[in-house]
Amino acid sequence: MAIARFWRENQSRYNMQGRKCGSCEAVYFPPRDLCPKCRRESIGKMEKLKLSGKGKVISYSIVHDGLPEFHMQVPYTMAIIELEEGPRITGQIVDTNPDDIKIGTEVEAVFRKLGQEGECGIIHYGYKFRPKE
């Protein structure tokens, strides 16, 4: 099935794979083919980089009224996380009480179910974050 292969082959979704510019060393996630800082100097110099998935919360929001199609139990926490390598990404915080999350909380990526297309549809997996142990 073409759709299943698409999700399986999407390395950045399952491995937190980013890119690092060989000219200025800026790190990007999701991966980019061209560095917006260096532009022409980065052509052919963007290197694959597996990110650690570790970072810290720099901002967050507790959602009390979620959309049913996201299948998330409310309340849940969405956060902007600054990864150790530099990129900032948005992710859901799991495995903890939303009231326990604070700015500066150290987190790590975990592989979880993101959603499903209908009751018998394709299940989509990806990363979420939990407080670091």
Description:
This protein has a domain at 52-131: OB fold (Dihydrolipoamide Acetyltransferase, E2P), CATH 2.40.50. 9% of the residues lie in helices and 42% in strands. It has two helices and eight strands, in the order ααββββββββ. The chain has helices at 2-8, 11-15, and strands spanning 17-21, 27-28, 46-50, 54-63, 76-83, 88-93, 106-116, 123-131. The strands form two sheets. It has a five-stranded antiparallel sheet with strand order 6-5-4-7-8, with no helix packed on it. β7 and β8 (123-131) form a beta hairpin. The termini are far apart.
Strand neighbour order, sheet with most strands? 6-5-4-7-8
Q: Helix/strand/pairing class, anyone? A: mainly beta
The proportion of residues in beta strands is: 35-45%
Predict the CATH topology of the domain at 52-131.
Answer: OB fold (Dihydrolipoamide Acetyltransferase, E2P)
| Secondary-structure element string | HHEEEEEEEE
Which key terms come to mind for this protein?
133 residues, mainly beta, OB fold (Dihydrolipoamide Acetyltransferase, E2P)
Provide the fold topology.
Elements: H1 2-8, H2 11-15, E1 17-21, E2 27-28, E3 46-50, E4 54-63, E5 76-83, E6 88-93, E7 106-116, E8 123-131
